[in-house]
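In the present case, backbone shapes were mapped to integers, as reproduced here:
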Amino acid sequence: MTDKQKVTIKNKFIYAVGKRKRAIAQIRLFDKGKGEIIINNKKLDDYLPDYELQEIIKSPLNITDTAKKVNLTVLVRGGGKKGQAEAIRHGIARALDKLNKDLHKTLKVEGFLTRDSRIKERKKPGLKRARRAPQWQKR
């Protein structure tokens, strides 16, 4: 076995994609990790300093008791910070489902495997926004 083959076996990961609104997150879940989460080449605390958003991301790991057993690298783009956090949560849940099928029911009950497909509706002609009509005038 060559050194190159050893490296590929060592760095085995599970790939998953999570989406929310305009945000898309590509997840790499490394089994046998220490609980490190790296988002766009930054640590979780640096990328999202808000505690609430960190908890959204960590929620599938905490529910399945895998927070200290796996490492994650995430590439996320599009949307706002909250949309990105929820896209990451969706991707992590999908990756955990691939890792262990026994976790499927737990993740499904919490609603982490369901993609929230609500997106901004397009603007229609003659309207100010998607559904907002100009103010009506009698005269």
